[in-house]
């Protein structure tokens, strides 16, 4: 019967083996993808602000 320590050790060993198989992005890829995320997030924030402002203005004109 395996002990808790044996199971934990096996799990840790399996995790390390799987992490060696991971295809990690290069530094340049990380920079490029970070720029994409920041750009899309900023554009979405601006779009949300404009739509919110337009709806607020429209409703205030109705009232």
TrEMBL record:
<dbReference type="InterPro" id="IPR038379">
    <property type="entry name" value="SecE_sf"/>
</dbReference>
<keyword id="KW-1133">Transmembrane helix</keyword>
<dbReference type="GO" id="GO:0005886">
    <property type="term" value="C:plasma membrane"/>
</dbReference>
<dbReference type="InterPro" id="IPR001901">
    <property type="entry name" value="Translocase_SecE/Sec61-g"/>
</dbReference>
<keyword id="KW-0997">Cell inner membrane</keyword>
<keyword id="KW-0472">Membrane</keyword>
<dbReference type="GO" id="GO:0065002">
    <property type="term" value="P:intracellular protein transmembrane transport"/>
</dbReference>
<dbReference type="GO" id="GO:0043952">
    <property type="term" value="P:protein transport by the Sec complex"/>
</dbReference>
<keyword id="KW-0811">Translocation</keyword>
<keyword id="KW-0653">Protein transport</keyword>
<dbReference type="GO" id="GO:0008320">
    <property type="term" value="F:protein transmembrane transporter activity"/>
</dbReference>
<comment type="subunit">
    <text>Component of the Sec protein translocase complex. Heterotrimer consisting of SecY, SecE and SecG subunits. The heterotrimers can form oligomers, although 1 heterotrimer is thought to be able to translocate proteins. Interacts with the ribosome. Interacts with SecDF, and other proteins may be involved. Interacts with SecA.</text>
</comment>
<dbReference type="InterPro" id="IPR005807">
    <property type="entry name" value="SecE_bac"/>
</dbReference>
<dbReference type="GO" id="GO:0009306">
    <property type="term" value="P:protein secretion"/>
</dbReference>
<dbReference type="GO" id="GO:0006605">
    <property type="term" value="P:protein targeting"/>
</dbReference>
<keyword id="KW-0813">Transport</keyword>
<protein>
    <recommendedName>
        <fullName>Protein translocase subunit SecE</fullName>
    </recommendedName>
</protein>
<keyword id="KW-0812">Transmembrane</keyword>
<dbReference type="Pfam" id="PF00584">
    <property type="entry name" value="SecE"/>
</dbReference>
<comment type="similarity">
    <text>Belongs to the SecE/SEC61-gamma family.</text>
</comment>
<comment type="function">
    <text>Essential subunit of the Sec protein translocation channel SecYEG. Clamps together the 2 halves of SecY. May contact the channel plug during translocation.</text>
</comment>
<feature type="transmembrane region" description="Helical">
    <location>
        <begin position="33"/>
        <end position="55"/>
    </location>
</feature>
<keyword id="KW-1003">Cell membrane</keyword>
